[in-house]
Every structure is written in C-alpha cells, then in structure tokens.
Amino acid sequence: MLKDKKILLIISGGIAAYKVLDLIRLIRKDGGNVTCVMTKAAEQFITALSVASLSQNKVYTDLWSLTDETEMGHIRLSRECDLILVAPASADIMAKMAHGLANDLASTTLLASNKPIMIAPAMNPEMWDNPATQANIETLKNRNIHFIGPESGDMACGEKGLGRLSEPDDIYSSIYTFFGDKPLAKKKVLITAGPTYEPVDPVRFIGNRSSGKQGYAIAEALRDAGAEVTLVSGPTNLQSPQNIKVIHVNTAQEMLEACISNLPANIAICSAAISDWRAKDPKEQKIKKTGKTQKQTIDFIENPDILKTLANLPKNRPELIIGFAAETEDLHKNAIKKLENKRCDWILANLVGKDENGQERAFGQDKSHIYFVKQNNEIEDWDTVSKKQIALKLTEKINSYILKQ
Q: Cα–chain-centroid distance for residue 269?
C-alpha cells in the first residue's frame, strides 16, 4: 500500500523515541520510503546509526551542515515527500510549530513545508495538560495538523495519565489511512446516533439529553476513512453530514427497523441513547389538566434492545459490533456487564449526569471521558478529549482491527 510513498519522519526528544524504530520497520515492510530528521534531544535516546540502518536512508540532524545543505537542503527535505510525520512530538517541537520558530533542522523543515503533517505527541501528563500546551494543540488543529494520540497509561517517569505515544501499529494505521486505498474502503458501516423520543400523547414524549454529537463525529471520521456510512439518527439539532446516508427516526422501534433494513453491514456502532421504556398506550389526544389535583398513570413497556438484537442476529450479523454505555455509577462494572450481556465486541463507556462541580457530563458537551472496553475485560482510559478526537481514535482502532483480519 505504501509502495513508493515518501515519508519524512521527524524524531524529537523523549524516551518514547525508541518506538519509532518499530514504526520505521512497519513502513518499510509495506514499501514506504522513510527519510528521517532527528533533533539533538532525540539523539540522547536513540542513535542516528540505528535509524539509518532501519530506514536505509541518510539521517539528517544538523541545520548548519554544509554537506547536507549542498546534497539535500532543508527546503528539499520539506518538499520532496508525500507526508511529514513528527513522532514522538515533544511539547517543545509542538510549541515551535505553533509559534513558527525555526532554530534547528526539524523546526525549520516544518516551517518551510507545504506538505500534510501528522504528529504523534508524547510527554508527561502535566506537560500535556498545561494550558500553554493545550493552546498550542488548538492552534495546530486549526491549521489542519492531524493528531495521532496520545494515549493514557503508565509513564516512564512513574506517573500515570494522558501522554503516552501511540503504539507503532496505530500510528502506521493512520499513515495507511492517509494514503488513498484506505482499510475501510468498500466497508459498510451502520451507526445510530442521538436520542429517541417515545410519545406519551401527540404533544409530550419521553426522551433524554443526547445531542447526537458523538455519533455524528464517528460517522464523519469513518466516512473520511473511506467507509460507506449509513447514519440512523434520532431527533437532533445537527446538520446531516455530507456524503453519508442519513435516516431520520423518532422512536426506538423506528430506529431498529431502519437498522435491520440497512443490513448487511461490516460494522455496526450503536452510539444512540435509546429510551429504554415507552408508553404502552400513547394517548391519541393531548392529556389535559382539569385544574384539580390529580394523578396520571402511564403504563410503560420495554423498548427493543437494538445493540443486543444486532449482536445476536442468526444471519447478517456485522463482523464488528460496538456499543456505548452511559452510566451514572459503577462505570467499569456496568460496562463489562453490558459487553457480556449484549454479546457485542467493544464498548465505549462514559459517565453521564452532573459531576462533583455540578457540571453536565457527556450529554450535549463537546468533550467526553471515554473508557474503551474490549473482550477479556481489557479497559483503556481515553481520558477527557473532544468527541471528534474520540471519533478519530475509534477509527484508528477499527482500522487496526480490519488490517489484522
């Protein structure tokens, strides 16, 4: 897939630099050509000799090398490639990129480039969370710099949190997705999003606070990865994404019917917040107040379980089924239980309701704190990130899954 593709890999400082050796091997194995630039800090963790041996190309380190500038030059380095990847991307090099600094070969090459740029950050969690770094991240995203990771977990410094370099397989998957023939090309994906509204009478309904933002973001990310996406959406205030088949529904029963009628699909993602209950006998006329103290009794029955239904189909079951678990307590326990009971493959779990500061979590927000749950009770903490970043991270996971099949 990567045959004859030219990738300029800029390696900045950090203990995670050793992982790029495996990344170079993966790119080379798939036919890609890798030319590397190393910062002085990167040379404290891995050697230029190791990088040159794996890449089979000269490694560039010095902006002031007369020989290098004569033979290649930082301008040619920045232009004679199809993609620039910065991995690991330290807080320092991200700051230089954001502010247009150019005081070494790596930063000068990035500033002189007119090519697409991907970065895979790696740093201490406190450095990642620092307002200065977060401001730089927003600046870079606004310039269409594509982020890969970081991940959450144990750090080399002994601390734990968001800041780990993404694994070489995941970085490779993002590179693979970037170039034309994408892993999800010709794959059909079915996604549910938003709330459902279950009528009590012609005026009133039972619903929830789901905005549909997460499901729509996932639909767009998978579309961009080459998939043929069908989005079954409950009532939202969001615009229908372009180049996506969108089916608008109101109730859980309508959503189920739309899902079944759009099978077969390779992947199903149930992100919609389905109302678990509906009125047994919705009134045909508006229920009126009489002006007197009175009670209204409504009989409820359970709605169909769309995730469980799709996961247990005797035929046309999607090969990968992903659900969401929105919980108010015992998040991990309930997510694992849902994964087992529904018989789906993955669960994305998050807490909803108000946090300890009285702020609303997840529903209607632009960010969410996701836990990625797989079979065998494996749980990854994705930390609090934007819903678009969650969509991209999930797309990377799906890409990796498809590539391994």
A: 13
